[in-house]
Design a protein that fits this description.
Number of strands: 15
Shape: globular
Radius of gyration: 18 Å
Number of helices: 8
Strand order of the largest sheet: 1-2-3-15-7-4
Largest sheet: 6 strands, mixed
């Protein structure tokens, strides 16, 4: 296995798993939950070629459709399921969330979805595997241990600034009676603070986000003091005037804590997509010439 560049100042979090030639990443916290299967794909184990090499899971980036189908079949086999039991988001950087069920199996892979503008999925149907797509944006995983429900979301900077993590928690509360204290959650592989430079206009949205979460300063200080996460600020000055380095991991961690999920119930990745662009697809590192990774979550 090739080495992974890990985020500095952190203990190793994500585990590498293999099923045949397919390699994927998992969270120990989610793996410890009975009856839950999850994964975050890598570029390893597929059949796509060129800029899509090799486990591309996008039908919309110009890759050969049959090769993408084969990649999905390989991922499904690695997760001991079938593509007919998978259901995909339709991401457009919204905070829209859709409840899905067994009748939605295969949507986005074997048949048309019949919906658009969906960046979050929730279900309590066993055997249905939720699928969202990534190439620097943040995957958010949610498991309700008491009510047997799960949620999976795509949260780029727009979704994060709009509080996608909070919206997922509240939607699960309405749909399943979820209590935040019963949730375990994970913030998945995505672009790290050192790689993610943003404009003043984007930075201002995150300043407003931080101010909108009650007790945000206290929560940020507690996270650092408890060793949950080493940074204390979502933004830091960039390398040029008017530029900022944005910590999407910390922003989402703050949102989830603000939503009431205990710190012990949240695990944060230590793997940056941009730092590891040979192993994970990164939009920024490739200047848009890439395939897509995917996150998977299922109640067995």
């Amino acid at each position: 296995m090739e080495p992974i560049i890990r985020a500095p100042g952190r203990e190793t979090v994500m585990r590498r798993e293999r099923a045949g030639d397919v390699e994927y990443l998992t969270f120990p916290l989610l793996s410890a939950q009975p009856g839950i299967t999850h994964a975050f794909s890598t570029r390893r184990g597929g059949v796509s070629q060129g800029i899509y090499d090799s486990m591309n899971l996008s039908f919309t980036r110009g890759d050969d459709e049959e090769q993408v189908q084969e990649n999905f079949r390989r991922m499904a086999a690695a997760l001991q399921t079938d593509t007919s039991h998978m259901v995909c988001s339709y991401q457009t950087h919204t905070t829209n969330i859709r409840r899905v069920g067994r009748e939605d199996g295969g949507k986005g892979i074997l048949r048309e979805r019949g919906y658009t503008d969906v960046d979050g999925l929730v279900t309590n149907d066993r055997g249905l595997c939720l699928v969202c797509f990534f190439a620097d944006c943040v995957p958010l995983y949610f498991v309700d241990r008491e009510h047997g429900a799960i949620g999976l979301a795509h949260s780029g900077w727009r979704g994060t600034a709009a509080g996608m993590g909070m919206r997922m928690v509240r939607r699960m509360e309405r749909e399943f009676g979820t209590r935040p204290r019963d949730l375990v959650a994970a913030i998945g592989p995505s672009i790290c603070r050192d790689c993610y430079e943003v404009s003043r206009e984007v930075a201002e949205q995150f300043e407003r986000l931080e101010a909108s979460i009650p007790g945000s300063d206290r929560l940020l200080a507690e996270l650092a003091e408890q060793g949950v996460y080493p940074h204390r600020r979502i933004l830091r000055p960039g390398r040029e005037e008017g530029k900022y380095q944005l910590d999407l991991w910390l922003a989402n961690l703050l949102i989830l804590r603000g939503a009431g999920i205990p710190a012990a119930g949240i695990q944060v990745t230590d793997v940056c997509t941009c730092c590891n662009s040979g192993y994970l697809f990164s939009h920024r590192a490739s200047q848009g010439k890439r395939g897509n990774l995917a996150a998977f979550l299922r109640i067995d």
